[in-house]
Amino acid sequence: MDDVESIFTKHFANNDRKKTMKFLRPQRQRESHMVTFFGLFTGCFVSLFSVYAILAHLSGIFRPNSERSYVETVYPIFSVFALLSLHLFMYGCNLFLWKGTRINYNFIFEFQPSTSLKYRDAFLIGTTFMTSVVAAMVIHLLLRASGFSPEPC
């Protein structure tokens, strides 16, 4: 190892040992908490969606003789937010594949490299948004099941 360091210092770093060590020693990757939060929000989304499916089944929303106003009113509203989350997820997939194929999308779309979204950022925003949408759906279903409904105008 000492021989490799001395040869590299002599031929590639112009006898600068500090520069040699900068190239030869592995750089530590900066730890990110985004992976933790992405996993947290994904787990919350799955559990909330399971709770919503169970509550919807127990309240009988999907039975043929149940009132159609809930499905006709609430699902179009929440589907808009789900569509936005789907677009964020697809954008994150594009960023991930562009990074894997080494396409310089920052240059193509004229983004600043320091402020552009990375694929993990896009996935985190999408899962956070979808978790909040499903949480709102669960809260709405719980309020509806407890008999709380706004007075019609």
Automatic annotation (TrEMBL):
Quote any Pfam family the record assigns: EXS
Recorded GO cellular component terms are: membrane
Say where the protein is mainly found.
Answer: membrane
> Which controlled-vocabulary keywords does the entry list?
Membrane, Transmembrane, Transmembrane helix
Q: Which organism is it from?
A: Salix purpurea
Q: How does this chain sit within the bilayer?
A: Multi-pass membrane protein
Where is the protein localized? Membrane
Report what the protein is called: PHOSPHATE TRANSPORTER PHO1-LIKE PROTEIN
Lipid biosynthesis is among the record's keywords: no
One GO BP: cellular response to phosphate starvation
Q: Report domain EXS positions.
A: 75-142
Q: Mark the transmembrane ranges.
A: 34-55, 75-98, 119-143
